[in-house]
Design brief:
single chain; 195 residues; alpha/beta; globular; binds adenosine monophosphate
């Protein structure tokens, strides 16, 4: 099984690149942001709880997202592998993911970290907000908060995966195609025995 984490701040291009990777490698894409937005659209209690955090650009509690990931893994036990997009976002989530994957004997093979500077992120997110319908992409103060939350709570994961020898930094600017080529090159290097 080939499991990778597409990592990076909001607006780094994780979702766009994940779509290209699932086409190339036949992996299952798990985006916690998409799963949460589905819950909101369906009007579930989980969705109602989640939106109170998402509207402000805060993280949804770990217990909620870890539960969602567990049910996705259980439902797709026979997948060729997973691309985790927007998860994990805290050290607690990363530890839970490692524990879950270890029980299935299918550890993460690489954390591919897209690197993009803050002014570019803000510009991309405001642009996306014009069409995405996502309120959290339309308000500059919410965008700033998401980037701050990334630095405070999510970026420590770089060190977490570096310690496991699984962190790979990738320049996240240029054309979508250029970035995709870089990612695939790193995947071949990091996960060659599983491709
Ligand atoms: P995203 O689509 O990945 O940009 O996520 C949108 C919002 O969903 C985030 O700003 C968080 O409020 C919430 N969210 C998504 N993934 C997670 C996660 N792994 N942990 C906590 N909150 C999350």
């Amino acid at each position: 099984m080939l499991n990778i984490i597409l990592f990076g701040p909001p607006g780094a291009g994780k979702g766009t690149q994940a779509e290209l990777l699932i086409q190339s490698f036949g992996l299952k894409h798990i985006s916690t942001g998409d799963l949460l937005r589905n819950e909101i659209a369906a009007g579930t209690d989980l969705g109602k709880e989640a939106s109170s955090y998402m509207d402000k650009g805060e993280l949804v509690p770990d217990v909620v997202v870890i539960g969602m990931i567990k049910s996705k893994l259980d439902a797709h036990k026979h997948a060729k592998g997973f691309i985790f997009d927007g998860f994990p976002r805290t050290v607690e989530q990363a530890v839970a993911l490692d524990n879950l994957l270890n029980t299935y004997n299918m550890p993460i093979c690489g954390m591919l970290s897209l690197e993009v500077e803050k002014p570019e992120l803000i510009c991309r997110l405001l642009n996306r907000g014009k069409n995405s319908g996502r309120s959290d992409d339309q308000d500059k103060s919410v965008i700033e908060n998401r980037i701050n939350v990334y630095h405070e709570k999510t970026s420590p994961l770089i060190e977490y995966y570096k310690k496991q020898g699984k962190h790979f930094g990738i320049q996240g600017t240029g054309t979508i195609e250029d970035i995709s080529v870089r990612i695939k090159k790193v995947m071949k290097q990091a996960c060659f025995d599983k491709l």
